[in-house]
Write a structure and sequence with these properties.
This protein is of the alpha/beta class. It has 14 helices and 12 strands. Helices cover 44% and strands 13% of the residues. Helix 1 runs parallel beside helix 3, helix 2 packs antiparallel against helix 3 and helix 6 packs across helix 7. Bound molecules: pyridoxal-5'-phosphate (PLP). The site of pyridoxal-5'-phosphate has 16 residues, from helix 6.
Length: 478
């Protein structure tokens, strides 16, 4: 056999690590020099400058003869790092875009090298066993009194919310099927009606659209959270089947809906309850903050995102259920993946654990993080992050030129320079972005536009926050 050309070594097997090591040296060096070149939370110059440097680094992107692995890795990794919005920089605080832990990132490398695919046992023997264990462990954290809670791994809150709506739709179909048979009358099946707050994530609306469900009834949330009285009144006017979707940590402000009161209303009106805890869910790790999630366990489905407060590289989503029967509608057969006789012979059937087929073992980095840090270690990161938000709120309250929207619930702080109108605020945010000095978000509320700092870096110091306020002040016209 001729010797294979350079750059075509494989990552697996006993020789894989030997091939990987020098490539990793190149990658790590390029990550370092890229971050040094950027010297801030994101590259200066705006979209055109960044696109130009990417174009220059790539050209030619598909050469007749390749440049070899080290040159390609060095050039492109350096360019990507130099042009990154880096959530590890304390001034990169616009979105629920977390700085991943080094340890989780290292685990993700192993996931890529081994490349298990989670759609059948014969592609992922150990990874599927690890996924089953880890999902049950995390589900038990969300639903501590359930007998056999379980969870599905997803690409994030969007996919989890879609699955939650699908499972609610299927559950109510089968309920209606049963009651029709019992009553011997044949009303057409009524579609599932979703009720949510204006604070609900946009993915709830898209999922309803995708699933062919009526548009969600969206109740105003002038205070940032669902009002139980308004919800009660709305539920009185609606007919089953109903799904209430509550939010534990809104994307715009981090507010948590009053979960116990909402769970009571769901019981009283015979509605199903989904709670989107994409952002707030990891407060369960914290002894200090977990009571903010009282009532979470009463939902039929819960969305959790560990690529937000959870410090995982994307993707790391979960959908937890107290009752594994909720997941039954996802059962699906494809002879080449889960033939009946294979399943009867004891091979685990994985196809019903996702709507995807080929699927990465995102569970490995999550399991490594849980084991390495423990519940207390993760809880401590949550506490530090929420403390940083409280510190920023204190600095703003004590500052003569700033106003604070409200005390933070999670790690989102809404603020603005006193007297700045919406156009000025939007301009400040864009200037900070294009100068590469800071990445801040924006939230529209009934009192106008606000700057949004979403703090997810547990190592942020109060000095970083003082500098952030100075940066904004420096860009505020007087
Ligand atoms: C981030 C977020 C989502 C979407 O999650 P992705 O991981 O981006 O798909 C859904 N709901 C809430 C409340 C979120 O904050």
């Amino acid at each position: 056999m001729p010797v294979p050309p350079a750059g075509t070594a494989l990552a697996g097997g006993t020789n894989g690590p030997r091939a990987l090591r020098p490539l990793l040296d190149t990658v790590l060096d390029a990550l370092t020099t890229g971050a040094e070149d950027r010297a801030g939370p994101l590259p200066p110059g705006g979209p055109e400058a960044v696109a130009r440097s990417v174009r220059d680094a790539c050209a030619p992107l598909l050469p007749e003869h390749g440049s070899g692995p080290h040159t390609a890795l060095r050039t492109l990794v350096h360019t990507l790092a130099a042009g990154a919005a880096d959530p590890a920089d304390p001034h990169c605080a616009a979105h629920l875009h977390c700085p991943p832990l080094a340890l989780a990132t290292a685990a993700d490398l192993a996931a890529s090298a081994l490349n298990p695919s989670m759609d059948s046992w014969d592609q992922a023997p150990a990874a599927s066993a690890l996924e089953a264990l880890t999902c049950r462990e995390l589900a038990a954290l969300v639903h501590p009194t359930a007998t056999a809670p379980d969870a599905l791994v997803t690409t994030g809150g969007t996919e989890s919310n879609q699955l939650a709506l699908l499972l609610a739709r299927e559950a109510t179909h089968s309920d209606q099927g049963r009651s029709r048979t019992a009553a011997h009358h044949g009303n057409a099946t009524a579609p599932l009606q979703i009720v949510c707050g204006a604070n609900a994530h946009h993915s709830i609306h898209r999922a309803a659209w995708l699933l062919g469900l009526p548009g969600p009834i969206t109740l105003p949330t002038p205070d940032g959270v669902l009002d139980p009285h308004a919800l009660d009144a709305a539920l009185h006017t609606l007919h089953s089947p109903l799904l209430i979707t509550a939010t534990a940590g809104s994307t715009d402000s981090g507010a948590i809906d009053p979960l116990p009161a909402i769970a009571d209303l769901a019981d009283r009106h015979g509605a199903r309850l989904h709670i989107d805890a994409s952002y707030g869910g990891p407060l369960l790790f914290s002894d200090t903050h977990r009571t903010a999630l009282d009532g979470l366990a009463r939902a039929h489905t819960v969305t959790l995102d560990l690529h937000k407060l959870g410090w995982q590289p994307v993707a790391a989503g979960l959908l937890t259920v107290p009752d594994p029967a909720t997941l039954a509608p996802l059962a699906h057969r494809a002879d080449y993946l889960n033939a009946d006789d294979d399943t009867e012979a004891g091979l685990p059937d994985l196809l019903g654990r996702s709507l995807r087929t080929t699927r990465r073992p995102d569970i490995l980095k999550i399991a490594v993080t849980l084991k390495a840090l423990g519940r207390r270690g993760l809880g401590d990161l949550v506490d530090r992050t929420l403390d940083a938000a409280r510190t920023l709120a204190d600095l703003i309250e004590d500052h003569p030129h700033y106003e604070l929207h409200s005390r933070p619930t999670l790690s989102t702080v809404l603020f603005r320079p006193i007297g700045a109108d919406d156009t000025t605020l939007a301009g400040i945010r864009r200037t900070l972005l294009t100068d590469g000095h800071a990445v801040l978000g924006r939230t529209v509320t009934p009192t106008g536009l606000w700057l949004k700092a979403t703090l997810l870096n547990p190592h942020t110091q109060s000095g970083d926050l003082t500098t952030l306020l100075k940066l904004v002040e420096g860009h505020t016209p007087r």
